[in-house]
Structures are given as C-alpha cells and as structure tokens.
Amino acid sequence: MRNDTINKIMFDKIEFVMTRISGEVERAMRVQEDITSKPPTTTEWK
User: Fold this and answer.
1) From residue 23, how far is each of 2, 14, 34, 37, 40 by CA, in Å?
2) What is the pLDDT of residues 5-44, one digit of tens each?
3) Which of these, 43, 23, 24, 45, lies nearest to 33 by C-alpha position?
4) What does the alpha-carbon distance between residue 11 and residue 25 come to, in Å, rounded to a whole number?
5) Exposure string for 31-42, b = 16+ CB within 10 A, e = fewer
6) Is residue 17 within 8 Å of residue 23, measured between CB atoms?
7) What is the CA 11 to chain-centroid distance, rounded?
8) What 3-state class would DSSP assign to 30?
9) Stated pTM of the model
C-alpha cells in the first residue's frame, strides 16, 4: 500500500509539471519525460 501511495504522488507531480510546461511554453504540444534508469534515447514522433 505504501508503494502505491508514493507512486501516485510521484506521477501526480510529473503530470503537474508536464501540464504546466505544455500550457506555458509557446508551441509546446507534447511533453515527454523518461523516468527509467536507462540512458536517454532519441524519440521520433509520427
């Protein structure tokens, strides 16, 4: 139960930041956050 609560808090914060960025940055249509421990990669949008 504790892990579920921590995960919800983390994802709520990430969602808040991503929503704010897409709302305040001109021409930002999408925000992607990689929360994995793997090195960053290039993402191609279709």
Assistant:
1) 32, 14, 19, 27, 24
2) 888 888 899 889 888 988 898 887 777 777 667 776 666 6
3) 43
4) 21
5) eeeeeeeeeeee
6) no
7) 8
8) coil
9) 0.57
